[in-house]
Write a structure and sequence with these properties.
Layout (H helix, E strand, L loop, with lengths): L2 E6 L16 H14 L6 E5 L8 H18 L2 E5 L6 H9 L10 E5 L2 E5 L14 H11 L7 E4 L20 H8 L4 E6 L6 E5 L2 E5 L6 E2 L7 E5 L2 E8 L4 E8 L6 E6 H5 L6
Parallel strand pairs: 1-2, 2-3, 5-6, 6-7, 7-9
Antiparallel strand pairs: 1-12, 4-5, 8-9, 10-11, 11-14, 12-13
Helix pairs in contact: 1-2, 2-3, 4-5
């Protein structure tokens, strides 16, 4: 038996208007979802691996929630969203999880028959890098102590592996060896993440890692280490979970003919998002 999951990441809807003043990320998300709905695929799960908002405004979630809910309903899929570094965790918890902020990490567990999907909140309060608390890792180890019949997928926003981009070098998951110690030897079959705005594959603690494309825009991995260059193309991931393997494929799309949607010095862009 095989299962189908679609992964979206890095939607970056501002509270109003367009991202950077000229990228209509609401239209880009709509285009991605329409592309999916028109396809022959009917996934069991629509997984969104963070950065639904751009600055974490409550209005961002009021914009994005109906689009995701509508597509999930049409597809007959469950919706699982986890926060990223651009999400405001309190507004995310209210707007996407329908509950008052708890102050706890927003970790979630979803089961698709015998397949277990563990979603970790890797956001760090006050910074753009990823982190996992001791309590999260202990809970993860306890959950993984009992293997799932069809294995486990682990989802988090921040990759536990390096990116070729200078813009991402210091803001991936910190202290990844702590996660590796928990994942190694477990039934985790693949790690799914976003954050880097480029497609990538790696291996971590003996487990394949998939870095999903962003919906909002794609960062050019050939840009220099001090440059951040975004191209208009976005993308989504189709995951086919078979009994003996998992196939992840990238489907690009574009809603504009502009070659670049952003092209500036890294320091200028990071200054727009105060962090650590």
């Amino acid at each position: 038996m095989s299962r189908v999951i679609v992964q979206l990441s890095d939607l970056h809807l501002p509270g109003e208007g367009d991202l950077f003043g000229h990228i209509d990320t609401a239209a880009r998300l709509t285009a991605a979802l329409d592309l999916l709905v028109r396809s022959r695929w009917r996934p069991e799960l629509l997984l969104v691996t963070g950065d639904l908002a751009d600055h974490g405004a409550a209005e961002s979630y009021r914009r994005v929630r109906p689009l995701l809910d509508g597509a999930a309903a049409t597809l007959g899929a469950r919706l699982l969203c986890i926060p990223g570094n651009h999400d405001g965790v309190e507004n995310f918890e209210r707007g996407m999880l329908d509950r008052e902020p708890s102050g706890a990490a927003l970790d979630q567990v979803v089961r698709l028959g015998g397949l277990r999907v563990l979603a970790l909140d890797s956001t760090s309060r006050g910074g753009h890098h990823g982190s996992l608390e001791d309590e999260q890792l202990s809970a993860l180890a306890a959950e993984l102590a009992e293997p799932a019949p069809e294995g486990t997928l682990l989802a988090l926003h921040h990759p536990p592996v390096p990116s070729p981009l200078g813009a991402m070098r210091g803001i991936v998951l910190r202290d990844p060896e702590r996660l590796a110690a928990v994942v190694s030897g477990s039934d985790v079959r693949m790690i799914l993440c976003g954050h880097c705005h480029h497609v990538g594959a790696a291996q971590f603690a003996g487990v394949p890692v998939w870095m999903a494309p962003a919906v909002a825009y794609t960062l050019d991995n050939l840009a220099g280490t001090t440059q951040v260059r975004g191209v208009a193309e976005g993308g989504l991931t189709l995951l086919q979970v078979h009994e003996d393997t998992i196939v992840a494929t990238h489907r690009p799309f574009t809603t504009t003919h502009d070659e670049y949607v952003i092209d500036s010095e890294l320091s200028d862009e990071l200054a727009k998002y105060p962090g650590d």
